[in-house]
Design a protein that fits this description.
The complex is a heterodimer of chains A (300) and B (388). Chain A is built from 13 helices and no strands. Chain A is mainly alpha-helical. Chain A has one domain (65-297): Orthogonal Bundle (MetI-like fold). In chain A, helix 3 crosses helix 12 (255-265) and helix 7 (160-188) packs antiparallel against helix 10. In chain A, 31% of the residues are buried. The mean pLDDT of chain A is 84. Classes of the chains: A mainly alpha (300), B alpha+beta (388).
């Protein structure tokens, strides 16, 4: 009897260790690459550490209160939110529209797929040079075209009002291809007989077909695309760094660029850590909100 | 309610001809089944009637009016799909109500948000709700009005799909293998319900299936199709008792019909494996024949019509058994015999006999030949329901 009991406990121990053993690599990796750096970042944000400094002291919430009153940070947050507000709806709706158009093509479909996907495969830094040329106030193709059509030329990147919208347009251009591929996958998964049923039931108007079948059936895809677009848009950095450097007059300063300046140009590591936490908090709050609100309205 | 007329329907997908010149008259209120193996063109024909596919040649008329230029919903037909094609994001109620909201509300009233601005909408929706409820009561689905299709069982989904079809009072019901996703027991049950529904509504039903049992048990008439042609059109009893060719004989009836190679003997009588059968074949166009005998017409014993077989195995179906034999003269020919379970099981070589009147004679191209059997007694009328 005792032997049997011992056998069972031994078996249970083996199972417990096996379970932990299988989970351990993932857990250790998570700690090393995510949780530990995050903890270091959080503790750094309560200090006045500067890169290369020999000593530092804890300053409590001082960094946070500085950030709260820093006009550069305020401007950066507003600009980032404006950028996100343009890129998320634009990037999602335009790619959905493009995907629906391409989905109906038969022979030319793969050609269009490649064309729209090209911006995703190219490096944005290199492409930014091209955009800079296209948008050049006098030589650029866009301004030449506008002038040819009788409009006044516009300095897209040096006009404070237009800087963020212009960068947002480039951001959308870069995102559309990727989102389009996701939407195309979603569209292919919609059973054809639903369209046939809706045809027989009287919804042959394209708007009805879209509202009754396409849009609801794309729910999960749309949610995924929205969340990833949001996160990508929030991370706007490269076009700002290459094309405007936050200018003109701070009109295109964004959160990640401000962090980069504080951390790697001014060496205020602790302040950069604080801003990074703020950045993370923004992404987290928005992602959670979106997931919870959308999740309830999405049919799987 | 209306009859459906097809004239010279032809359809090809690329180089593959799917339908060749189909002519078919379906009477008002008739239950017609298109039956055939997969790939025979039956679903395509149904989809052409529905307007989901356009034909290359020929025309479709409903109630005597050509509908070739009409969109599916303008043809006033309803369709039940194999996978039901219910809208997964809508409740059962909304699924059934959709055909009515589509026809009775204008585009503005159907738009989300905008719809609340319309005063007429509320009145129309109340009317629609009343009609949906009436249909749901008939199908006993009102208790899960607010559930989504994903939360329903196969049989319940089937009923919802039927409800969506019934609610618009269509001129004809088109059904594309509606029972094939159900389990065997439910399929038998739904077969009965569909037959009763047809009797109650009295509406034209065109039903596509590859299942010969569904075809035999439910239809007023069935059209056996293969390779894009209608091989035979007739009542279930007709098709079972007088198959027009070998393909029909093989397709209808389960277990499948036994086929023996035979020839026309010197006296104009059928010669089967050296035996002369008392069957007159003066109108046979060729010397080579095929004799078909259904397994239920075979019995163990000798007689003027008989073949010698070697016993292989027995399949016990409970009330009866199917015995598998090989023909001794040519062992590659399998012979089936259906017997009651109180008949002793034979061993080794056995003689199986059948009546001349149970022989179906086909020429070398597989067409049926009308023959006279010497002992032509009155035909025993086998009920179609006997086929299992």
């Amino acid at each position: 009897m005792n032997a049997v009991a011992a056998q069972i406990t031994r078996q249970q121990w083996i199972e417990r260790f096996a379970g932990l053993g299988f989970a351990a690599p993932a857990f250790i990796l998570l700690v090393l690459t995510n949780l530990a750096p995050l903890a270091a970042l959080a503790s750094l944000s309560f200090t006045n550490y500067e890169l290369g400094a020999l000593n530092f002291s804890f300053v409590g919430l001082k960094n946070f209160s500085t950030a709260l009153h820093d006009p550069v940070i305020r401007r950066s947050v507003t600009n980032t939110l404006l950028y996100v507000a343009i890129v998320v709806p634009g990037g999602v709706l335009i790619s959905l529209f493009v995907a629906i158009l391409i989905h109906q093509r038969k022979r030319t479909r793969s050609l269009y797929e490649v064309i729209y996907f090209l911006p995703v495969t190219s490096t944005l830094i290199a492409m930014a040079t091209m955009w800079q040329f296209l948008l050049h106030p006098t030589l650029g193709l866009i301004n030449q075209t506008l002038k040819g059509l009788g409009f006044a030329g516009t300095a897209f990147l040096s006009e404070p009002r237009l800087a963020i919208p212009t960068l947002a347009a480039i951001g959308i251009w870069q995102l559309v291809g990727f989102n389009m591929v996701l939407f195309l996958a979603g569209l292919s998964a919609i059973p054809r007989d639903l369209y046939e049923a809706v045809d027989i039931d009287g919804a042959s108007h394209p708007i009805d077909r879209f509202l009754k079948v396409t849009w609801p059936m794309l729910g999960p895809t749309t949610m995924f695309v929205t969340v990833t677009t949001f996160i990508t848009a929030f991370k706007i950095f490269d076009t700002v760094a290459v094309m405007t450097r936050g200018g003109p007059g701070g009109a295109s300063e964004v959160l990640l660029y401000a962090i980069y300046l504080e951390g790697f140009q001014y060496f205020h590591m602790s302040y950069a850590a604080t801003l990074t936490l703020v950045f993370l908090a923004f992404t987290l709050v928005f992602s959670v909100l979106q997931t919870f609100i959308l999740d309830r309205r999405v049919h799987y | 309610m209306a009859g459906v007329t097809l004239r010279g329907i032809g359809k090809a997908f690329g180089d593959t001809a799917v339908l060749n010149n189909i002519d078919l008259d379906i009477a008002d209120g008739e239950f017609l089944t298109l039956v055939g193996p997969s790939g025979c063109g039956k679903s395509t024909l149904l989809r052409i009637i529905a307007g989901l596919e356009s034909q290359d040649r020929g025309s479709v008329s409903i109630s005597g009016n050509s509908v070739d230029h009409l969109r599916p919903h303008e043809r006033r037909i309803a369709m039940v799909f194999q996978n039901y094609a219910l809208y997964p994001h809508m409740s059962v109620f909304d699924n059934i109500a959709l055909p009515l909201t589509m026809t009775r509300l204008n585009l503005f009233e159907r738009l989300p948000l905008m719809c609340h601005l319309s005063l007429r909408r509320r009145r129309v929706m109340a009317e629609i709700a009343r009609e949906v409820r009436a249909v749901a009561e008939q199908l006993r689905i009102e208790s899960f009005f607010h559930r989504r299709p994903g939360q329903l069982s196969g049989g319940q989904r089937q009923r919802v799909a039927l409800g969506r079809a019934m609610v618009r009072h269509p001129q004809a019901f088109l059904m594309d293998e509606p029972l094939s996703n159900l389990d065997a027991k439910l399929r038998v049950h739904m077969r009965g319900e569909l037959t009763e529904l047809h009797a109650r509504l009295g509406v034209t039903m065109i039903y596509v299936t590859h299942d010969q049992i569904e075809a035999m048990t439910m239809s007023d008439r069935l059209a056996v199709m293969d390779h894009g042609d209608i091989l035979q059109l007739g009542t279930p009893a007709d098709v079972y008792e007088r198959p027009a060719n070998i393909a029909v004989a093989q397709f209808i009836g389960s277990p499948a019909i036994n086929l023996f190679p035979a020839r026309v003997g010197p006296g104009g009588q059928v010669e089967l494996l050296g035996r002369t059968l008392p069957i007159d074949t003066r109108n046979a166009p060729a010397a080579e024949l095929t004799i078909g005998v259904r397994p239920e017409a075979m019995r163990i014993g000798d007689g003027p019509c008989a073949v010698t077989c070697r016993f292989r195995r027995r399949e016990n179906l409970g009330s009866e058994s199917i015995l598998h034999f090989d023909l001794v003269a040519s062992p590659e020919v399998a012979v089936l015999c259906r017997i009651d379970n109180d008949t002793p099981i034979p061993e080794g070589e056995v003689t199986l006999a059948f009546e001349p009147r149970d022989c179906h004679v086909f020429d070398n191209e597989g067409r049926r030949i009308e023959v006279e059997s010497r002992n032509a007694a009155s035909r025993d009328v086998r009920r179609a329901s006997e086929v299992r």
